[in-house]
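Recap slide: Solute carrier organic anion transporter family member, sequence and predicted structure.
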Amino acid sequence: MEETETRILTRGVRCFSKVKVFLLALTGACVSKSLTGSHMKSMLLQIERQFGLLTSTVGLITGSFSMGMLLVIIPVSYFGTKLHRPIMIGVGCMFMGLGCFIISLPHFLMGRYEYETTISPTSNLSSNSFLCMENRSLTLKPTQDTTECGREIKSLMWIYVLVGNIIRGMGETAIMPLGISYIEDFAKSENSPLYIGILEIGITISYWIGYSLGSFCANIYVDTDSGNTDDLTITPTDTRWVGAWWIGFLVCAGVNFLTSIPFFFFPKTLPKEGLQDNGDGTENAKEEKHREKAKKENQRIIKDFFPLMKNLSCNPIYMLYLLISVLQFNTFVSMVSYVPKYLEQQYGKSSADVLFIMGIYMLPPICLGYLLGGLIMKKFKITAKKAAYIAFCLSLTDYLLSLSNYMTNCDSFQVAGLTASYEGVQHPLHVDHEVLADCNTRCSCLTNTWDPVCGNNGLAYMSACLAGCEKSVGNGINMVFQNCSCIRSSGNSSAVLGLCNKGPDCDNMLKYFIIIFSVKMFIFSLSSIPGYMVLLRCMKPEEKSLGVGLHTFCTKIFAGIPAPIYFGALIDRACLHWGTLKCGEKAACRIYDINSFRYLFFGLPAALTGSSYLPAVFLLRLMRTFQLPEDTDSPDTELAETKLIEKENDCTDVHRSPKFESNGEMKAKL
């Protein structure tokens, strides 16, 4: 009985001693981390509105993830190879779960979300304080009480999101550098591109899941668990709407905790792929060799750090690749962080619809590109030098195609007194806003409150009062305003809640944008695997873990942290109308100058990416004459080493004799 249990236990342990099993567990970890990351990106808009933040502050929250990575990236990448890498990955997954849980805490610690409106939730047909009334005292004006203002602005509940994101970044640090170096150490060199492609596919699938989860949460009102939502006067298409962002983070916390479990069962080292289960003693010899090598490495942890850093800094290909990555990562972070906001403002879609579109139409091409990239690298055994040319040509094609996005634009929302006159004529957005007109000066309206209504003339107004409406019918989101003096139409002058739709022409532009962006994502992902192999193959085996970690460190500190902050600050400059807190201070932006937004959204990334092609040309010219480590550490060298071990084993078996009892005599005989 004991022998049977021992055999089962041994078989279970051996199950965790294969590269492919580790690849499966690492794919699960990549899925969980990317699920969390994509959900965080998809919920940035909801978090911005929940806490009334500026876009630049949201950029700080986005950059806090990179701050967490910077705290531990170098020690994890370097010392992680000397310690137990699978266990460190498992601990990292647990940290990600803890970070997600902390991010969700503000929902349970703060009160209900109160959006900006002139209509009281308890309004009925007899209450008309939000309509046009002559000789009315401005009792609706926001209070200037400094205590109230401090309570709103200085509550700083968003700090929980910031801290949770930092902890999430600390946890994610260990996954890719240690996971990839672990696979590179114990997988066949021709299999590693395919394995990395599989990891990227897992990441892409999880992005689809994350955006789908974000779309689901964005459709649910944030306080759906604590009250009746029938009295709401906003819909998911409204820029004041806040979805239930906290639900997704609780889901992500559970997934991260679950994916951490398998890593605690993997051994510190694995037998080299292709040498296991061959029964000729080669596996034991290789394992012994790895153990001896690990002991020597543990004895010189500190001593080797600075020489390895010096080797990497003196590697021109590595440094040029680092510069290219920093420039292009600025582009990537800037666009990914704010693409939901751009699509919402440009095409007039709700956050839920935007996230659904991104998940369904844009992520599958990325998955296909990663798969084809890995298969092509494996099938044709493409060297790093050829991979560099392939990545450059594909990236340049992607860049040229991105320039066509400038043509997929729509007009701004037509809002009287803001983007158009009260006669419906669109005027330049740089002129002073005139929200009052002859038709509403008698109404004693608030001029800074955002509670838009859409008139039956196709023009929107900042509030029912500014539209000159004197009567309302119904309640909640079905409320209809009548007798509106500012709405000039052939029929009854009426309005409904919300902005007016942009129309079928804008829907067609959205289709063109989706097609172009999908092709771009396919080309981008197809070029990623060859490009990443240039990074891995330009370093020596002992430099890979530290090199990948240093690469991550530089991209985070020079792109991951500053890019969302300065890009968000530039987007804030395109705001046309800010939301207003109860104390009168400005909150999240409600509507943007869409032309300025488009020029920023595509222009700055185009400039950054374009500047990256100059060092890319130098890198290609340098690789013609530069001798890479893979040119000396070829599979033939590894095969010759394996044959030498086998030959030594055979030689030992043939000459082994009872008369040679000591090691000295055996060596003399050999």
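The domain at 2-110+155-268+300-410+505-560+593-623 is CATH 1.20.1250.20 (Growth Hormone; Chain: A;).
Confidence is low (pLDDT under 50) at residues 1-13, 138-144, 276-284, 634-670.
(End of recap.)
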